[in-house]
Structures are given as C-alpha cells and as structure tokens.
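Go through this fold for my students:
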Amino acid sequence: MRLCPNCSNPIGADAPKCDKCGAVFVSSWKPLVAEPEKHYPVEFTASAGEYFRIWIVNLVLTILTVGIYSAWAKVRKKRYFYGHTRIDRDSFEYRGRPIAILKGRLIAVAERDLPEITARRRAHYLQLLSLCEGSREIKPMYPNLPQGVCPYVFPVLVKNDVQRWVDFLRTKGVPASRWPDLPPEVRDSQVFPETANLAEHTVLLPIHQSLTTAQVDKMGSVLTNCSGGL
C-alpha cells in the first residue's frame, strides 16, 4: 500500500489512479535499488630503463636546441606515461601537439615584454612623425597615434610612383615596402577607387622594437631628403 500524493488516500502499490480524487499516475512506483560498486584495476606498466632513454634524449636535444626541443620533450614524456597507465585494461592517450605548445610558450614570453615593445614602437612612430613634419612630398597616413595603440609600421602617402620610392629608399639602406598585393576582388579602381589609390601611393617604413633611435633617425632623414628628387 501507498498514499496518493494528491489526497493522501491509501491506494495499491500498482494502482494506475486514485479511486478518491482520480489522480493518474504515470508509472507504477518501484523502489530504487542501489547498483553494486564496481572496482576497476589500475596498472602502470612503464619501466625505469625505457623512461631513462626517453629522458636522456630529451635532455640532450633540449640543451642543443637552447630549449626549443622542450615542447617535443614534453609530448614524448606525456605520451609515454599516459600510454603506460591503464584502467580496466584501457590506456590513456596524450594528444598535445609540440608546435602548439611551442607557440603558446613564445606568446607567453612575448606578453611579458609587451608593454616595453609597445613603448618602443610608439616612440619610433612618433620620432618618424616628427621628422616628416613640413615635407610637401610625403604625408603620414595617421598623423595622430591614439593612446595604447601598438603600431605595426609607419605608413606615408607619396604623390608619385610608389615603387620608385621603395626602390630608392632600399638603395639607401632603408627596408621600405609598399602596400601588400590586393586580392582580385578589390583591384578594380572604378569599383574601389580609394583602395587602389592607397595601394599605389603608400610607402611602409619599419618601426620594429629592435631598431635604435639612430637608425630611425637615419630612415626619417633619408625619407625627407630624397622627397625632392623623386
């Protein structure tokens, strides 16, 4: 016997509905039976001799490559331990990729130096911006550098053939470049006139953080002094 949850009327254990209030039960009541506990055997089948060979190779290659191989060393070690750990005769699989691990480590290192990198790039940009003031042949594309922005290059607009500018600057030791090749979808100057115009009149100067103030000053000097002859 059990009680109806709606009116507390005593009903049979397998009754489909209550005789008093008419409540219908979706399924008959059955007590829960706890399943017996299952124990799975855990095995570790690795050996010291096998791991020593992996460890010594990882150590030597990591030293020879100045730490670069450490990403591959980690993957080899993890795969060995995971593959030799078994639960109920099933082993684990380590799916980490060494290239992804190496990239992550490089990004982590770069992020620690990011404020310094940003500061040096901004200083180089502002230095070139100051050197280009007053020039009639060139015009900085972005005369204002917003706070917190880390510039990639220093773009300037020139009046005539951009390739002549790039070639001339390179002969003077300035690693200038032009706007990257446009995709076919935007090469039509009638449909995308502004895009085509920028591609034909933009010179890009490097402002890498490894440059010195003297090197940036030389680039700015060459750029402004050659503007009258092109």
